[in-house]
Design a protein that fits this description.
The protein is α+β, with helices and mostly antiparallel strands. About 35% of the residues lie in helices and about 25% in strands. Helix 2 packs antiparallel against helix 6.
Length: about 200
């Protein structure tokens, strides 16, 4: 057989691909549905929701998550303590992410009661934008905790929770759209009662 002749290919054989390698599909990063849907409601709602959900991003949570052994996680063995954390922290999250344009300062006062550490100053600074604009735009936000679970609960009184929210925005008493879902990673510390120290979008 000459070098220019080729043996016939069977149906199972496939010719080698030539040219550029196949393109890899880009990795899609997770997004916040709440912020996407809020964008269509106008900038006041988008601003308020963005402040309430994304302003507290904390880079150190991932490092803390890996600390300790599974045996140190009380959420796996102490059902009563876990349920208590869920009830208290869920109520606190709903309070600080619910406000009305007639009295936005009430939400700020609630935040002073349930927040601790760096979260206090950051919340005051960012919520000031909502406090200023909500009365002008007659904007209100109602937040309900749809579901919450404890990821980690330690002996030293630190809890990390995944909290799922349903949020409804109104303008001048009328809904601006359907409820918007959001997820938060919440870190709380037991300082004579559970208080929130860190918040980040999940």
């Amino acid at each position: 057989m000459s070098i220019t002749e080729q043996e016939p290919r069977t149906g199972r054989e496939r010719p080698a691909r030539r040219g550029r390698p196949p393109r890899r599909r880009p990795v899609r990063r997770p997004s916040l549905p709440m912020l996407k849907r809020a964008a269509g409601l106008g900038w006041p709602v988008a601003l308020a929701l963005a402040i309430c959900v994304s302003a507290f991003a904390v880079d150190g949570w991932a490092d803390r998550r890996s600390e300790g052994s599974p045996a140190a996680n009380r959420a796996l063995v102490d059902k009563a303590a876990t349920e208590k954390v869920i009830v208290e922290v869920s109520a606190q999250v709903a309070r600080i992410f619910t406000y009305t344009h007639t009295d936005p300062a009430a939400t700020e006062r609630a935040a002073n009661e349930v927040l601790t550490g760096d979260a206090i100053g950051e919340y005051r600074k960012l919520f000031g934008v909502v406090k200023k604009n909500a009365p002008v735009m007659k904007l209100s936000l109602t937040t309900r905790v749809a579901k919450a679970g404890v990821i980690k609960l330690t002996e030293d009184g630190t809890a990390v929770l995944l909290v799922m929210l349903d949020q409804t925005a109104t303008r001048d008493g009328k809904r601006t759209g359907p409820p918007v879902a959001a997820q938060l990673i919440v870190t709380a510390r037991n300082d004579q009662g559970w208080r929130i120290s860190d918040l980040r979008a999940a």
